[in-house]
Design a protein that fits this description.
Largest sheet: 5 strands, antiparallel
Number of strands: 23
Helix content: 40-55%
Number of helices: 28
Oligomer: single chain
Number of domains: 5
Shape: globular
Radius of gyration: 35 Å
Distance between the termini: 72 Å
């Protein structure tokens, strides 16, 4: 039986009938209610059954249709249907945020994924209530209603903020240890430069610019709302947010939507730098080249390109959270295993004495972050929810006890107190123990116990759970804390979590050949190999016997990529370890490959002259029989022109470097004279009579022609790098050459030969 034939008058009559006669207990609704304009609530199925009785003379029966059918019937006819769930009221003032829901906490706003908004409004100090003015196409009661209402109330005050205040305006901080997401932006493009995320809202003003801020779930903008009240509100002003638990269907849909968003973010963009693709294919690469060619600069460009999925190649454009996916270290002769992987480091004990503790090195810490992301991305939704539930229970428990005061008792009657808790340890004090009065417990073990479905009733259960033959000293205290947490844990709703998206992590080693690579990496020689990433390449580290779990193995996950830089001509270091060479792909970076670094020289004439001088000097360097392209001067030297002149750059930086190159050669002085002439440096009082290399000091029409020539040459090479066609660039070059009739024929021929050579080098570079 479907919904019976009734009309609006029948429904009105049915509501009147129910008002007079009430609702039998068996007919009360457990899922939905029909809400009238007066706010009165009625069970939808019973209203239809009564309407059918009054209209058609049949018995009042609700078995012929289900609750969803009744709900859909009313909603399609414009009636207000609400889920019959408990409502919670969140009050936001300048001083505090409180909720009638005892589960709410400002310490973890990500839980906002589990709730659905019902109503939002603003109450000023005078008691006046204001609600959201909706623009065309805007849905009512979404996660974005509250921040949009806030913009509406404080529109003029926000508009009057300075650009600096808008950029630093706090919006969200999910957990106390997380970064604060800031910024009120005028466009989506400006917002994406700060945070490459699809989770944002746009507030469109009636007159004036729009505003864009980060916004995701129901609670994600509470910090923004409260900050607006602090800065612009009056005492007594408040926002009210009414919400309810999401239904199971709504939770599942939220997970699906989040997965779609993550996939869209993943496929929306792709890496643009050709070297990025090389790194992703090879896992490990080393950039080698002459000094100042921008190898470190290029490494950071690649990292930014990969991390942002092609959105930017500037490391400074990455968000603070994205920067955690990049680590940078510089090797030097004294760098060792303890710095890189792990080692014993001195520490001051509480009694003032010195001791040692095992600490992770920079690479191991970085890999642990990447490995956690890699492993979390493989976890099911159910497992992630178990972990969140366990962490929440632990946070609630440790936050509710008085550290150092509250006493707990083991199964054998030993009393102890918890004195400190951090991310890795639970420090306890055992005053009655004559053997040891202090002990540090592994918090990860306790969390695994809480995450599992195992019921621990005795200490041997813990021993079996961790696969140990004998119980450790700490298990009795773990068991006592476990029981205490279980006893205090309140039943909370099942939290919905979205499995973490796998990220890429880039580790950059500058001057990789300056350290003793075998000593620094130790047993990681094996696991760093691209063919042994993951658990197939796991190894026991040198200090594994000092780990909480001596059987713990270390491995480098698939989402870790390593970039090294090295200078082949550095005579202060030994040759690169041959065993390590086969684990890296070597890519040569030539001076001309990174001239785009000079784009930061905002003066176009200065940039053109810098490129010209650099090209001429490098052409002269490779003419020296004992030198090659590895001795050429890179663009990074010419970035010093932001604060130096050309002559100072020569005397203070380039000349000393080149003198080291040619020291010991028979024609050392002649080489330096040719270098200076090619660069365009003329010492005070000296002339220049060599027409093959015209002085940069001449004036007039010929100077302008030559500057035009060199400018076009740079344009040609840039066009080649960006994929310009050979035919088009040749045409432009011939046009420029024809405009310079005054150029000396011999010099022009030499320049044309150089350009042709550069063209061939560029083509060869593009084929790598």
């Amino acid at each position: 039986m479907a919904i019976p034939k009734i009309n609006e008058e029948d429904i009105t009559a049915a509501i009147k009938y129910i008002e007079e006669n009430g609702v039998p207990e068996k007919n009360k609704s457990s899922r939905y209610v029909l809400v009238t304009e007066e706010g009165k609530q009625y069970p939808p199925k019973y209203v239809i059954a009564v309407a059918n009785h009054l209209a058609n003379g049949v018995n009042i029966i609700t078995d012929g249709f289900n609750a969803v059918e009744a709900k859909n019937y009313f909603e399609t006819r414009g009636y207000n249907i609400e889920s019959k769930q408990e409502k919670y009221e969140l009050t936001i003032t300048a001083k505090e945020v409180s909720s009638t829901d005892e589960r709410f906490t400002m310490n973890n706003l990500s839980f906002g994924d589990n709730y659905r908004p019902i109503d939002t409004y603003f109450v000023n100090a005078s008691g006046e209530t204001k609600r959201r003015k909706y623009n065309k196409g805007e849905r009512r009661n979404t996660n974005q209603t509250l921040p949009r209402l806030t913009f509406q109330i404080f529109e003029s005050q926000i508009n009057n903020l300075s650009d600096l205040d808008k950029a630093s305006f706090p919006v969200c901080k999910y957990t106390p240890e997380a970064e604060t997401i800031c910024g009120i932006f005028k466009t989506v493009e400006e917002f994406l430069k700060y945070k490459n995320s699809m989770e944002h809202l746009t507030y469109r003003r009636e007159n004036g610019p729009q505003y864009v801020i980060y916004a995701w779930n129901l609670f994600s903008t509470l910090l923004f709302v409260q900050e607006c009240l602090r800065r612009f509100g009056r005492e007594g002003d408040k926002f009210i947010l009414v919400y309810r638990d999401k239904t199971e269907q709504e939770r599942n849909q939220a997970v699906t939507d989040a997965s779609v968003v993550a996939e869209e973010q993943k496929t929306a963009k792709g890496c643009k730098n050709p070297y990025s693709k090389i790194l992703l294919e090879s896992k490990n690469i080393i950039f080698r080249g002459a000094p100042g060619t921008g190898k470190s600069y290029l490494a950071k460009e690649i990292a930014a390109d990969i991390i942002s999925d092609g959105y930017t190649d500037k490391y400074t454009d990455l968000s603070d959270e994205q920067k955690k996916q990049v680590e940078f270290v510089q090797f030097h002769p004294s760098y060792d295993y303890s710095d890189f992987v792990e080692g014993l480091r001195p520490r001051m004990n509480e009694d003032g004495s010195m001791g040692f503790e095992l600490q992770d090195g920079i690479f191991k810490k970085f890999v642990d972050r990447a490995r956690k992301n890699f492993e979390d991305s493989k976890k099911s939704k159910e497992l992630v929810e178990q972990e969140i539930s366990a962490k929440t229970a632990m946070t609630d428990f440790f936050g509710s006890i008085d550290l150092g005061e509250e006493t707990f008792t083991t199964i054998k009657g030993n009393k102890f107190t918890i004195v400190n808790v951090d991310d890795r340890h639970i420090d306890i004090s055992i005053p009655g123990n004559a053997t040891i009065d202090k002990l540090s417990l592994n918090i990860e073990e306790l969390q695994k116990m809480l995450e599992s479905d195992v019921t621990f009733e005795k200490i041997s259960d813990i021993t079996n759970f961790f696969g140990k033959q004998f119980a450790t000293q700490g298990y009795s205290y773990d068991f006592a804390i476990y029981k205490a947490i279980k006893a205090r844990k309140t039943e909370k709703q099942k939290l919905v979590a979205v499995p973490e998206t796998q990220k890429k992590y880039i580790f950059i080693i500058d001057e990789i050949n300056r350290g003793e690579i075998s000593k620094i990496l130790g047993e990681l020689f094996f696991s760093i190999d691209p063919g042994y990433r993951g658990k197939s390449g796991e190894v026991a580290t040198q200090y594994s016997n000092m780990h909480t779990d001596p059987n713990e193995k270390f491995y480098i996950p698939e989402n870790v990529y390593i970039i090294g830089t090295m200078n082949d001509i550095d005579r202060s270091v030994d040759s690169f370890d041959f065993a390590m060479r086969r684990r890296f792909r070597f890519v040569e970076v030539r001076a001309e490959d990174t001239q785009d670094m000079l784009e930061s020289l905002e003066d176009e004439e200065l940039k053109t002259e810098a490129i010209a001088r650099m090209d001429k000097l490098n052409a002269e360097i490779i003419r020296v029989a004992d030198l090659n392209e590895n001795y050429q001067i890179g663009a990074s030297y010419f970035l010093k022109l932001k604060v130096l002149g050309f002559d100072d750059l020569w005397t203070d930086y380039l000349q000393p470097l080149l003198q080291d190159y040619v020291r010991g050669l028979n024609d050392e002085e002649e080489c330096m004279r040719r270098f200076a002439k090619a660069y365009g440096y003329t010492a005070s009082g000296e002339g220049d009579s060599d027409d093959a290399f015209p002085s940069w000091g001449f004036l007039g029409r010929e100077q302008a022609l030559w500057e035009s020539f060199w400018g076009l040459r740079a344009t040609v090479l840039n066009a080649l790098r960006s994929g310009g066609t050979r035919r088009a660039t040749r045409k432009d070059f011939r046009r420029s050459r024809g405009s310079m009739p005054s150029a000396p024929a011999a010099f022009l021929a030499r320049v044309l030969a150089e350009v042709s050579r550069s063209w061939a080098l560029s083509r060869r570079h593009r084929m790598i």
